[in-house]
Design brief:
Length: 236
């Protein structure tokens, strides 16, 4: 894939590691990568004595990771961990950022992710991807429609899945993971997570979240006696 600008939405610091190899690969071809980190990382403290300083620690780790991966800039929205909700305030912030930075493609967590912050962000980015290109919510800036939306991480099966070979970027991906020192205990030690990553195929999997067509579903009957249509807004 070749883009001038991409935007990566993640819920927490270190989530970008799931597509760290692809980020490096895009940067190597001149793509500008903007990362939007929605949560502070406030819940990611493995030791009670770190509770009051974990956000500062993870901010520093994120800055170090950005230097390794070539991310510029990292935008921190500042929601507490576990409180990332799909609401008007946060979705309008996502729309504003898309319109301000005008990415050609957007990446975010997969729709089958079990973490509620990840799953909520996926739904919010899907909505914001569409609405940013519409002549609505003009307080968030002039419309901008990104060309493509991709999911990384845990995605539902389907023909839209594809892999990116990151063999040449693996060393840099591992180096970026090494910056997340506060998470070593969660991962069972750096050597453990390093060996797990290296033992897998050197690819990262994505899903293209393109338009859904009727043929993706069971064909409906040709005729109904009665139907009921629920709409959220006038003109829907």
């Amino acid at each position: 894939m070749s883009y001038e600008r991409v935007m990566v939405f993640v819920a927490h610091p270190d989530d970008e590691g799931s597509m760290g190899g692809a980020i490096v690969k895009m940067r190597e071809t001149g793509t500008e990568v903007t990362l939007v980190q929605m949560c502070t990382g406030s819940g990611g403290y493995p030791k009670p004595e770190w509770k009051d300083k974990i956000v500062e620690m993870r901010t520093a780790e994120g800055d170090a990771c950005d230097k390794v991966l070539g991310i510029k800039p990292r935008i921190r929205v500042g929601r507490p961990d576990g409180e990332l909700l799909f609401n008007r305030e946060t979705s309008e912030e996502c729309i504003r950022l898309i319109r301000e930075h005008r990415p050609n493609a957007i990446f975010t967590h997969g729709e089958a992710d079990l973490h509620p912050d990840h799953r909520n962000l996926c739904e919010m980015v899907k909505f914001s991807f569409k609405m940013a290109g519409k002549p609505v919510r003009s307080a968030q800036g002039p419309p901008w429609q990104a060309s493509h939306l991709y999911f990384f991480g845990n995605t539902s099966p389907g023909s839209a899945l594809f892999e990116i070979d990151i063999s040449a970027q693996m060393d840099t991906k591992i180096e970026s993971i090494a910056t997340q020192k506060s998470q070593y205990e969660w991962w069972g030690g750096f050597e453990n997570i390093r060996d797990r990553v290296l033992s897998r195929p050197h690819v990262e999997t994505f899903k293209h979240a393109g338009p859904v067509v009727l043929n993706d579903f069971v064909s409906p009957p040709e005729k109904y006696e009665r139907i009921l249509v629920f709409a959220a807004h006038p003109d829907d």
